[in-house]
Design goal:
Elements: E1 2-6, E2 17-21, H1 26-32, H2 38-54, H3 67-75, H4 89-111, H5 132-137, H6 140-201, H7 205-211, H8 216-230, H9 235-262, H10 268-271, H11 286-307, H12 310-330, H13 334-339
Antiparallel strand pairs: 1-2
Helix pairs in contact: 2-4
InterPro entries: CAD_CENP-Q
Pfam families: CENP-Q
Length: about 350
């Protein structure tokens, strides 16, 4: 199959078609290609015969130029064609044109009924036997209507694409803002986490346990369920665990008794927890009781350690007072400021 695409206008003012060869199998041609219907053949015949009528008027603006003039322009030949004696140039051109048109018309009209043509590209079903699409290919009104429909569709799709591009730009701007906000939040979260870790380093383990409480009741329930699932096979393990729990509880009681014996006599306001609107029942919460006991022991040990530093602190205060008196009596003005470290 040989198809042609339109090229830009040449120097002679006419559009040219450049051939493009496309190889199609013979089986496809036999199976899908079909001859043109009679109405299309009649349209082709009318087009070919109208060439001769358009050549009739020499002063008509729609007059088709002769083939000899086109050939001379394309080849840019300076050699004059030879004419037979007794005939003018115009007569020879008319005769040549008429002969060429008749020859081409006879050949095409003889071959077109037998020539197979591909199905129309405007048809949605290539195997359809309808001749409407083929007739529309040779109809100027149908072609113009099809062009207007395509132009309206093109304008609609163009406006839609512009709207979609604008929407995409807005969405991209919003996405950039969201990403910037997300980066800010992530940076703030990292700094907050880092600061929290730094602050937790100086906390006492008891305070950390208060900040991160553990649901001991849930843990006990899970341990009880695990013991029930294990059954008799794990009876020995349960006895060992219970004995270990008894030993640990006895050790804790002994430590508490020792701490109470070593604890100095404090006022009732210090030994007893302050009463508030919400009272805590320490007897019903052994975990809280254990934590409070450890905290009280820690405070007592801190007080015991700092009691030995009281004489040292009193001596340091006396020494400071003596030094201040010495500086006041011996130095004045700039020397006094320099002694206290207030110099430039």
């Amino acid at each position: 199959m040989v198809s042609s695409n339109a090229e830009p206008r040449g120097s002679d003012g006419f559009a040219h078609l450049s051939p493009h060869i496309r190889h199609i199998s013979r089986s496809t041609i036999r199976r899908k290609w079909k001859p043109l219907p009679q109405s299309s053949q009649d349209r082709i015949r009318a087009i070919l015969l109208s060439l001769k009528a358009r050549r009739a008027g020499a002063n008509d603006p729609s007059r088709v130029p002769t083939m000899a003039s086109l050939k001379r322009k394309s080849q840019d030949s300076t050699k004059q064609p030879q004419r037979r004696p007794g005939r003018t140039k115009k007569q020879e051109a008319d005769e040549e044109y008429q002969t060429a048109v008749e020859m081409v018309t006879e050949k095409l009209l003889g071959r077109i009924p037998r020539m197979p043509f591909p199905p129309s590209s405007t048809s949605s079903n290539p195997n359809s036997n309808s001749n409407n699409h083929t007739d529309d290919s040779f109809s100027l009104e149908a072609t113009l209507h099809r062009i207007s429909t395509l132009e309206s569709t093109l304008s609609m799709h163009t406006s839609t694409s512009h709207l979609l591009r604008a929407q995409m730009k807005r969405e991209k701007r919003a996405l950039r803002r969201d990403r910037a906000e997300l980066d800010t939040l992530q940076t703030a979260l990292k700094s907050e986490t880092r600061l929290r870790k730094v602050q937790e380093r100086g906390l006492h383990p008891v305070t950390r346990a208060l900040d991160h409480p553990i649901d001991h009741d849930v843990a006990r329930g899970q341990n009880g369920k695990a013991r029930q699932r294990s059954g008799s096979a794990s009876g020995d393990d349960d006895e060992e665990e219970s004995s270990e729990d008894d030993e640990s509880s006895q050790q804790q009681q002994q430590q508490q008794q020792q701490q109470q014996q070593q604890q100095p006599h404090l006022p009732a306001a210090q030994t007893n927890p302050p009463s508030s609107g919400t009272t805590l029942n320490y007897d019903l919460d052994p975990d809280m009781k254990n934590i409070m006991t450890r905290l009280q022991s820690h405070l007592t040990s801190m007080q015991t350690n700092t009691d030995g530093m009281q004489p040292v602190l009193q001596a340091m205060d006396k020494t400071k007072v003596a030094l201040d008196q010495f500086v006041t009596m011996r130095f004045t003005g700039t020397d006094r400021d320099r002694a206290y470290g207030f110099h430039d």
